[in-house]
Amino acid sequence: MKRSALFALFLASGLSTAVVAQQPPAPAAGPPRGAAPAGPSLPAPEPIERISGNVYKIFGGGGNTLVVVEDAGVTLVDTKLPGNGQAILAEVRKVTDKPITTIIATHSHPDHIGSTDFIRAQYPNVRIIMSEGTAAEMVANPQTNPALLPTETYKDRLTIGHGDERIELYHTGVGHTGGDTFVVVPSEKLLFMGDVMAWNMAPFLPAGGAAAIAEETERLVAAVEPLGIETVVEGHGHVNDWAGLQRLARFNRALVTEARAAYDRGDPPGAAVAELQKNPDFAPLLDTRIKKGLEYGNTPLARAHMNVNVAYAEFAGEQAGFGIANGAPLPLTDKHKGSDPKDTAPPTPEMLASSVAK
Question: Is 21's pLDDT higher than 60?
């Protein structure tokens, strides 16, 4: 299905999304709680897969759900779109019959918090933890389902549990949203990124902007580097490694640097992306194929163009808005050149047919 058709579908369902619901949360209404959404939608949750030790991942149905099995119960990180609660629980039951004791939300978008209400109904005493910024975004939306709200929040750092069952939460600034949470499982040297790193491509920027995402990612790398992180689970699809996160941090910074240089020269935004393409280290982040689970979206290369367009708007003191961040061409103004619409155009059927496998 083309991106425009899926966009209309999601608006009709009340999820308000064009990029896996990556914008302020919509009400978790619609299908019966725990039921699969009707009609065409995102790929359904896939079978649970072990990542390392007692840590598992469930792909599909929205963002990745991280599953951490502990002595007393199970911690879930993110709960996908509404209607996936029963599927999440069914996959968890394949590896343990322990209760769900904790839900951590990486951010406020519906593809990451949407089934929290269903799971909460099954486990009324579950802890629901998120950053203060995420909670504030949800409370500010009058349509937010109260059953999605947290039982506790944190500001910058929070430790959950002790010893080998310790989980560390980090908030390092505004970026993908105003409340991004990064989750570390120290015993497995594992970091879960949420949508600041997803599909091994530059992040979607509806909130923080190009400069902010570079700062947020750099602060994260500095904060967790002493922990010896080896496995980096992205917010959608991909499992990466420490070197991949370091590359993303370098890329986010280089994108802002090259965008600034091109802007100051009076060049169009595409000139900055052309400079990024000269660095072979960035090739994985500039792929021209559609990623599995992002068939309604666009390529890593197109995302780089979108983020440069956001940077140009920032340099000019303009509001990029959701449209520019999601692929609308940057218009020509008296402050900068406009972008080539082809750089962020929706993918062709041929591109969709050759989607990559991860």
Answer: no
Say if CB 341 and CB 324 are below 8 A apart. Answer: no
Which pair of tokens denotes residue 136? 């504030």
Residues with Cβ within 8 Å of residue 345, at least 6 apart in sequence = 302, 327
**Residue entry with tokens 């792909």:** 59
**C-beta of residue 61 within 8 angstroms of C-beta of residue 15:** no
What is the residue range of 33's domain?
Answer: 3-211+230-238
Question: Does residue 127 lie in a domain region?
Answer: yes
With CA atoms as reference, report the closest residue to 82 among 42, 52, 117, 108.
Answer: 117
Is there a single domain that holds both residue 128 and residue 159? yes
Count structural domains, the chain: 2
Considering the domain boundaries, does residue 41 fall inside one?
Answer: yes
- Tell me what pLDDT residue 27 has: 33
- State the amino acid at position 231 in one-letter form: T
Q: Is the pLDDT of residue 351 over 90?
A: no
pLDDT in tens, 80-133: 999 999 999 999 999 999 999 999 999 999 999 999 999 999 999 999 999 999
Residue pair 202/160 in contact by the 8 Å Cβ criterion: no
User: Domain check: are 109 and 196 in the same one?
Assistant: yes
Does one domain contain both 86 and 197?
yes
What six digits make up the tokens of 316? 């000019």
**For residue 149, what are the CA distances in angstroms to 129, 299, 325?**
9, 33, 27
Task: Output the pLDDT for position 35.
Answer: 35
CA-CA distances (angstroms) from residue 13 to 16, 37, 140, 183?
Answer: 8, 9, 21, 30
Residues 333 and 198 in one domain: no
- Is the pLDDT at 25 greater than 60? The verdict is no
Phi-psi category of 78—alpha, beta or left, where left has phi over 0 and alpha has psi -120 to 50?
Answer: left
Whether 220 maps to a domain, the answer reads no
Reported as a pLDDT band with limits 50, 70 and 90, residue 8 is: very low
Q: Are 192 and 287 found together in one domain?
A: no
